[in-house]
Design goal:
663 residues; alpha+beta; Helix Hairpins; D-amino Acid Aminotransferase, Chain A, domain 1; OB fold (Dihydrolipoamide Acetyltransferase, E2P); 5-stranded antiparallel sheet; binds 2-(butylsulfanyl)adenosine
Length: 663
């Protein structure tokens, strides 16, 4: 037995050492294959002899624990942001302010500004105890379970000269290379791709299943040590000590004696950062000495002892070869510039979004122009200007299309809309396919089919709208390329399963313009079922919290189209859920079609009160009329409503009386 314990101890220590070298120091001491064999060996031993397993074993890095909800926890020290500077002058102003407070004898550190997600790690007795996101700066989300899967973050520290109780802050980033292959895999699987590594890192840290987080290529650079008993009197040496304890501290941090040296660092990295495998959006300059930092202190938002210098977005020039016009599932037309491929911020750019006709007009884009391209926060970069000097004589101004490139219908542009639309909703192929793809998506009806299947179903003429999906037969599916008994069974099964999807998700899946996840939820909760929603007036729709005029118009327009009604009726027949779920035993139909107006403030959120009304079979209406049965009067309710209700003789009840009605 003792032998086994020793074996587990040794393997654990050995694998930890490999991990530290690989993830923190970027040194491979053994091949991945050898590592995996040893890890498997340790895993097997730990399964058989769990009493000897170490709490911080490298096998734990694969995750497995599931986050139910992310607890919000107050930060021990506020998590502030940094003030930004954009040029030399602003940097010199900062230096002048610093020297006014602390004299002339000081130095700075220069570090890269990592473009990721800030994180605060707490350690007690050398063990990671908690990881919080920044949140609103005074409290953040507890993402400890997920952070433990990031292999460059030590779960237990090396050496023994760390403070007993401290915090360390840094940035969780996704490497560019990791991001590119990760996004590619998602694209191939028909999943939504992330716009940039920062979003991917942020999305990863908020996942419920830590085993999934473990698969994401995340890394973490630490840049700020907090707490009592710090090892040194200056920031630079503190981070050097942290490095010895096992933290990943950037090798690119330097000390600078004055602004000229800072500028040298900035100029060097403005170019060199393009070769890094992670995104940086600037340089962070900090007063090095901690006592000086304390003398300078903080403003409400940021430290006075540190500042960020933001790089100008990288800009390249390339040829506009042509413009294509994409038709989205709602019929919205998006012009896209096809460019001569060029390297920009670590990737090759071939296309740039032009968003709408106004942008083309604003840029005064001509055919075969040389354009300046920048990367913003989106995947597709944008054209920010034109090199007029290179414009060839007689080149034609770009003329926006007047007809849909896919179906030839004349495009329409409603006042107030930035985009042109193809109105041929039910016969324009990309709109039909787009709607189907949206409908079957993972967050929607979650039907086991991808873009290729939709394409095939469409091409064979089997499916023209979402209701057709539920009429598909095994016979038809077997006619699709690559479909065998098993795949047919899977698809039919998942269609069957999708009938259980909740009303709010179904509503979202229908792809009604402006009705996203949140709006769908609001509408479903408020109206309770499709019948009530279908017959709601514009006014009633607007009265639902956060529903604006354009959403209301879009709903009215949707239900006014007989084709939509037909689709909904077919979906109802197929057995899809067009009402909020309520188990009969839980809610009785106590309010039986009675209509309620809710006004004022209550002890419970107003939306919850409305939800109860629909749960118990009542109907929510917005305005008091002769048809209203009850007015539930809360605190500070509008006097006009009250007066009207009194005049019409409508029963006015309190929140308590209402609760009694449904008890
Ligand atoms: S120091 C009290 N150092 O930039 C100041 N921040 O825009 C502590 N960031 O919230 C921050 N790289 O998330 C610091 N080397 C670096 C950084 C850095 C990136 C982030 C951090 C901060 C944000 C401010």
């Amino acid at each position: 037995m003792n032998e086994i314990k020793i074996k587990i101890d040794n393997l654990t220590a050995e694998l930890k050492e490999y991990n530290y070298n690989y993830y923190v120091l970027a040194k491979s001491l053994i091949t991945d294959f050898e590592f995996d064999i040893k890890l498997k060996e340790l895993q097997d031993l730990e399964t058989e002899f769990p009493q000897f397993a170490h709490k911080d074993s490298p096998t734990k890095r694969v995750g497995g624990e599931v986050n139910k909800d992310f607890k919000t926890v107050a930060h021990r020290y506020l998590m502030l942001s940094l003030a930004n500077t954009y040029n030399e002058g602003e940097l010199r102003d900062f230096d002048a302010r610093v020297s006014k407070t602390i004299g002339n004898n000081y130095d700075y550190t220069c570090e890269l500004k990592f473009d990721g997600l800030s994180i605060s790690l707490s350690y007690f007795d050398g063990k990671l105890t908690q990881a919080l996101t920044r949140g609103d700066g005074s409290s953040g989300d507890d993402v400890t379970i997920n952070v433990k899967t990031i292999k460059s973050i030590p779960i237990s520290l090396r050496g023994n000269d760390w403070p007993k109780d401290f915090e360390i802050r840094g940035e969780v980033v996704m490497t560019r290379s990791g991001f590119n292959s990760f996004n590619k895999t998602r694209e191939e699987a028909g999943e939504q791709v992330f716009a940039n590594p920062r979003n991917a890192a942020a999305g990863s840290l908020k996942m419920k299943d830590s085993a999934e987080v473990a698969k994401r290529p995340l890394d973490c650079y630490l840049y700020y040590l907090l707490g009592e008993n710090q090892p040194a009197d200056n920031h630079y040496d503190n981070l050097m000590a942290a490095k010895k304890w096992g933290f990943k501290v950037s090798d690119f941090m330097v000390k600078a004696a004055n602004v000229d040296e800072i500028l040298e660092y900035i100029n060097y990295w403005d170019e060199a950062r393009k070769e890094l495998d992670f995104d940086t959006d600037g340089v962070v300059i900090k007063v090095n000495n901690i006592a000086n930092q304390q003398r300078l202190g903080f403003t409400a938002k940021s430290p006075r002892w540190a500042i960020a210098y933001k790089f100008k977005a990288e800009r390249v020039e390339t040829l506009l070869e042509s413009i294509s016009y994409q038709v989205g599932r709602t019929g919205a037309i998006t012009p896209v510039a096809n460019l001569t491929p060029i390297k920009l911020a670590g990737s090759i750019v071939k296309r740039a979004s032009l968003h709408n006709a106004d942008i083309i007009e604003l840029l005064e884009l001509h055919e075969k122009d040389f354009v300046f391209v920048e990367k913003g926060g989106e995947i597709i970069p944008k054209i920010v200007g034109i090199n007029i000097e290179k414009r060839v004589a007689n080149s034609q101004k770009i003329k926006y299309i007047s007809h849909c490139p896919e179906c030839g219908s004349a495009l329409v542009r409603t006042e107030g809309d930035a985009k042109h639309f193809c109105p041929n909703e039910y016969h324009c192929p990309p709109q039909i396919k787009g709607k189907l793809e949206h409908f079957i998506g993972r967050k929607m009806m979650d039907i086991a089919a991808g873009e290729a299947t939709v394409e095939a179903l469409f091409n064979k003429g089997f499916v023209r709208n979402v209701a057709d999906l539920y009429d598909l037969s095994a016979e038809q599916l077997l006619k699709l390329d690559g479909f065998k008994d098993k795949s047919v069974e899977n698809l039919l099964l998942s269609l069957e399963k999708s009938k259980e999807v909740s009303f709010e998700r179904l509503l979202f899946s229908l792809g009604i313009r402006y009705v996203g996840e949140t709006v769908a939820k609001k509408l479903a909760t408020y109206f309770g079922n499709i019948q009530a929603l279908r017959t709601a007036s514009k006014m009633e729709l607007i009265m639902v919290g956060d529903i604006g005029e354009s959403i209301a118009d879009s709903m009215i327009e949707y239900f006014a189209d007989p084709l939509n009604i037909e689709i909904i009726e077919r979906l109802i027949k197929a057995g899809l859920k067009f009402e909020i779920e309520k188990s009969e035993s839980q809610y009785e139909n106590k309010l039986d079609g009675k209509s309620f107006v809710v006004s004022g403030k209550f002890t419970i959120p107003r939306d919850d009160l409305k939800r109860k009304i629909s749960d118990y079979g009542g109907k929510n209406v917005s305005a008091v009329s002769a048809k209203t049965d009850f007015l539930i009067a809360g605190e500070n309710m509008g006097p006009a409503k009250l007066k009207k209700a009194e005049k019409l003789g409508i029963e006015i009840i309190s929140e308590d009386e209402f609760i009694n009605m449904i008890k």
